[in-house]
Amino acid sequence: MFCPWCTSHAQAEFTAEINIHFSGLSNIDKHGLLVFPKLVVCLDCGYSRFTTPEAELSMLAMCSPKSGKGDVRNVALSSTAAA
Fold first, then answer.
1. 51: domain range?
2. Residue 34 placed within a domain
3. Residues near 15 by beta carbon (within 8 Å), at least 6 away in sequence
């Protein structure tokens, strides 16, 4: 696989910890969603990419401002209680 930015083949995969926050002042008091994706980094230009894991992606979809269903804290608590 090559880098889509510089076409280099010098890439490495790392584990990552990413906290995703919703934008806007109305979301400033909401917790972010912590995800642990695999991160692919181009070692020549620094271009990085990751794919959000499916479980966290569904939480983001439910809690996004477009869905209007509330915040991550409520979804995260109800999903862990159900597990």
1. 11-82
2. yes
3. 36, 38, 39
pLDDT per position as a tens digit, 8-44: 999 999 999 999 988 888 878 888 899 999 999 999 9
Residue 14 bridge partners (DSSP):
39
pTM of the model: 0.65
26 domain-assigned: yes
**String of DSSP letters for 3-61:** -TTT----EEEEE--EEE---SGGGTTS--EEE--EEEEETTT--EEE---HHHHHHHH
Q: Is 1 a member of any domain?
A: no
Q: How many domains does the chain have?
A: 1
- Taking alpha carbons only, the member of 63, 57, 15, 59 closest to residue 36 is 15
- What phi and psi, each to the nearest 5 degrees, are found at residue 36? -125, 70
Give the pairing type, strands 48-50 and 38-42.
Answer: antiparallel
